[in-house]
Design goal:
The complex is a heterodimer of chains A (309) and B (63).
Chain A: H1 16-21, H2 25-41, H3 48-72, H4 74-79, H5 95-116, H6 119-140, H7 147-167, H8 172-195, H9 197-203, H10 208-211, H11 213-236, H12 243-265, H13 268-273, H14 277-305
Helix pairs in contact in A: 2-3, 2-7, 2-14, 3-5, 3-6, 3-7, 5-6, 6-7, 7-8, 8-9, 8-11, 8-14, 11-12, 12-14
Chain B: H1 8-41
Classes of the chains: A mainly alpha (309), B mainly alpha (63).
Chain lengths: 309, 63
């Protein structure tokens, strides 16, 4: 009977892990880390239980937006080698399940963050989910080669939300933490696009490498890395930073700029010849770059709490 | 129709159901801990509830 179709059995029974994979756990770990730093360096403190709940529900909100992204992008995820194994394109989870989990967890995360901390932080979380799932995933990703630039804002919000959870507002320091991730995202992803460029091309995603070529992408990487350095140094001179952040900012930005300069100088022939060695190295440095800055902020906060600076 | 105590489906879904159950228990624990913290600190436990309630506002005299 048609109305019993809901009882049809599947060939594969999804596990809890399949549903958890919808939340993009690796992205979530970065969100947890940056939101935690934003919360801990803020000039106000939460009860540890409230802080734990705040980070948990910021992470759940980020995961929910990841599930919505996977629901919408299942068609292009299936084409790209890097994403073909995700739960929906591999057939382990139905698209509607991802949508339900994404919407349900978004609501839960926003309401719980409001109850645990304050309405301002919850509003920012709701906006971040909207920005990532709708503005980036639905509107910009398939439309403009600047998708990464604007989409990077979604990934830049967590430290600001963490700060807002603790203080009930935002400030220059929170905005600079946002700007650091925002300006870091394009060079990070464009370096990746240089050495996995065929994937984005096959999926029809207008990555800068596809629309404007690798030469323009190399120029863009250098330009954004140049713009990133003063933000990192400015952040290092704010009251939430200290000597550790300043040293890290100087060293990491010099290293990052050198990598961007190396990428800019190369042509395709030399990049192909050594299998994109400089691009892959720059990508690895970019991961260390962000981790180092936020760890340094945390260390300075620790030194300050210990009365050492 | 006779209800069967266990079905193959139950076995196949056991680990998933266990995961959901543990997640829900963890959520309950977080909400309970939050409640204990907020109540013991004496946070506002009443809101305006769609009606103006002057007793919840701080009077000018106490500011």
């Amino acid at each position: 009977m048609a109305d019993l179709s809901v009882n049809k059995t599947r060939d594969y029974e999804p596990t809890f892990g399949d549903y958890f994979a919808l939340l993009k756990p690796r992205v979530m770990s970065l969100v947890v880390f940056t939101a935690l730093v934003g919360l801990l360096v803020a000039p106000a403190s939460l009860h540890p239980v409230e802080a734990f709940a705040a980070i948990l529900f910021i992470a759940v909100g980020a995961g929910a937006s990841g599930a919505l992204n996977m629901w919408w992008d299942a068609d292009i995820d299936a084409v790209m080698r890097r994403t073909a194994g995700r739960p929906i394109p591999s057939g382990r989870v139905e698209p509607n399940e991802a949508l339900a989990i994404g919407v349900g967890l978004s609501g839960l995360a926003v309401v719980m963050l409001a109850l645990a901390t304050n309405l301002f932080a919850a509003g920012m979380l709701a906006f971040t989910i909207f920005f990532y799932a709708v503005v980036y995933t639905m509107w910009l990703k398939r439309w403009t080669p600047q998708n990464i630039v604007i989409g990077g804002a979604a990934g830049a919000f967590p430290p600001m939300i963490g700060w807002a959870a603790a203080t009930g507002g935002v400030s220059v320091e929170a905005a600079l933490m946002f700007a650091l991730i925002f300006m870091w995202t394009p060079p990070h992803f464009w370096a990746l696009a240089l050495f996995v460029r065929t994937d984005y091309g096959d999926a029809g995603v207008p990555m800068l490498t596809v629309t404007h070529g690798n030469k323009a992408t190399r120029r863009h990487i250098l330009a954004y890395t140049f713009l990133l350095a003063p933000i990192a140094l400015w952040l290092a001179m704010t009251p939430i930073a200290g000597p550790v952040t300043l040293i890290v900012a100087i060293a990491m930005n010099a290293w990052f700029l050198k990598g961007a300069f190396d990428i800019w100088r190369r042509d395709e022939a030399s990049a192909e010849a050594d299998n994109f060695k400089a691009e892959k190295s720059f990508f690895r440095v970019s991961l260390i770059y962000l981790f180092a800055h936020f760890t340094a902020l945390l260390l300075d906060a620790g030194l300050r709490a210990g009365g050492l600076i | 129709m006779e209800l069967k105590a266990t079905h193959d489906l139950h076995k196949r879904r056991f680990s998933r159901n266990l995961g959901v159950a543990l997640t829900l228990v963890a959520l309950i624990a977080v909400i309970f801990a939050l409640t204990v913290v907020k109540v013991s600190r004496g946070d506002a436990m009443q809101g305006f509830d769609h009606a103006v309630r002057p007793e919840l506002t701080t009077s000018e005299a106490t500011q």
